[in-house]
């Protein structure tokens, strides 16, 4: 489930408070190698033969549309300005019909990139390229979704088995205040896990989410361990105008075994109206650029080796989904799904 091109999305001329102009340009800090034992459920996973799991018919849209309830957003939210939104009661009308654990599991929707990264024939630099693109793909869905997922209860869990993609994952809410969600996924070629925690800033004209947790990936046949942190997301025009959002920051994917890295730069709207554009590079252990990446976080990515002039497609949003998403952005009848 991904989003549409934002070329026609209105851009606010308002500027943010100067206190966050520098603080969140880069939310990536160096992630130290994980010294704790890797949570490995692979032995149990092997007993779950996904080939024997009946294929599910998955619905393509919600059974009923969003209720059209007229509420004054400003009247509701004005008392929340400057507060920690994880500790205030927000009217249920502003929620989408998912919990945050379910929303977090959507990060694995395009897990085929992880399959390519973990393939034995994939070089270490290409593996970093696939992981860098994978780290950015989830933002293709946030361009059209402005409702808040429900806060999970403490110790609430959610399990997802994708027999069609060959992985199973489980998530749990491990802390209520501050909210912390953990997700763990197993595939025959790889293991993926993450902890999601965040800081937030709410001002009259925008709401910013700054993830502070980390995402991890391990390749089974090499045991290489990778990690990265997510960029900041800002929703604009909270009070007046059409809602839209952008991402900002530099995401750095690090191979802790070899020292190789890949960096993706999300262009903030404050520096360009082409704020969905993205660019990145893959570096070897000596810091030399080996691969370049470019694209649009709402629709497509390409790469090329530095010694080549040919750009190759990595991932493109299917045309029908792109068209459907354009309609949903305008109507918002199904919460932006």
Are there runs of 5+ residues with pLDDT below 50, and where?
1-39
Helical segment count: 6
Strand content: 25-35%
Judged by helices, strands and strand pairing, the structural class is alpha+beta
**What value does the Rg take, in angstroms?**
20 Å
**Secondary structure: number of strands:** 17
Shape: globular
Distance between the termini: 7 Å
What are the secondary-structure elements, in order, as H or E?
HHEHHHEEEEEEEEEEEEEEEEH
Mean pLDDT: 81
Percent helix range = 10-25%
Largest sheet: 15 strands, antiparallel
Structure description:
By secondary structure, the chain is an alpha+beta fold. Helix content is 15%, strand content 32%. It is built from 6 helices and 17 strands. The protein has helices at residues 42-47, 73-77, 100-105, 112-118, 124-136, 319-331; strands spanning 95-99, 148-150, 157-162, 167-175, 180-187, 190-196, 198-203, 206-211, 215-219, 225-228, 232-236, 244-255, 261-266, 277-283, 289-296, 300-305, 312-316. The strands form 2 sheets. It has a 15-stranded antiparallel β-sheet that branches. A two-stranded parallel sheet has the order 1-2. Helix 4 packs antiparallel against helix 5 (124-136). The chain starts with 41 loop residues before the first helix and ends in a 6-residue tail after the last helix. 31% of the residues are buried. The model is unreliable at 1-39 (pLDDT under 50).
């Amino acid at each position: 489930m991904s989003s549409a091109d934002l070329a026609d999305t209105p851009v606010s001329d308002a500027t943010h408070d100067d206190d966050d102009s520098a603080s969140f340009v880069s939310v990536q800090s160096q992630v130290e190698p994980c010294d704790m034992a890797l949570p490995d459920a692979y032995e149990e996973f092997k007993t779950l033969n996904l080939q024997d799991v009946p294929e599910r018919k998955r619905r393509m849209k919600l059974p009923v549309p969003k209720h059209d309830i007229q509420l004054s957003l400003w009247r509701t939210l004005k008392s929340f300005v400057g507060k920690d939104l994880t500790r205030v009661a927000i009217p249920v009308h502003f929620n989408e019909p998912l919990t945050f654990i379910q929303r977090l599991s959507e990060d694995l929707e395009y897990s085929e990139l992880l399959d390519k990264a973990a393939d034995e024939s994939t070089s270490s630099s290409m593996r970093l390229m696939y992981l860098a693109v994978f780290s950015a793909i989830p933002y293709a869905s946030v361009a059209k979704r402005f409702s808040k997922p429900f806060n999970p209860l403490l110790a609430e869990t959610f399990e997802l088995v994708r027999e069609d993609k060959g992985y199973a994952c489980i998530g749990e809410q491990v802390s209520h205040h501050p909210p912390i969600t953990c997700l763990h996924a197993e595939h025959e070629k790889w293991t993926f896990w993450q902890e999601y925690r965040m800081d937030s800033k709410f001002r009259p004209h925008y709401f910013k989410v700054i993830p502070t947790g980390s995402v991890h990936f391990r390749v089974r046949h090499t045991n290489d361990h990778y990690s990265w942190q997510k960029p900041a997301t800002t929703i604009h025009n909270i009070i007046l105008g059409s809602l839209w959002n952008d991402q900002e920051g530099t995401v750095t994917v690090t191979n802790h075994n070899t020292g190789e890295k890949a960096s993706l730069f999300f262009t903030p709207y404050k520096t360009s109206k082409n704020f969905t554009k993205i660019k990145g590079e893959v570096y070897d252990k000596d810091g030399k650029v080996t691969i370049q990446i470019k694209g649009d976080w709402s629709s497509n990515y390409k790469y090329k080796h530095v010694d080549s002039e040919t750009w190759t497609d990595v991932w493109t949003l299917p045309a029908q989904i792109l068209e459907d998403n354009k309609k949903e952005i305008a109507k918002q009848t199904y919460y932006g799904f």
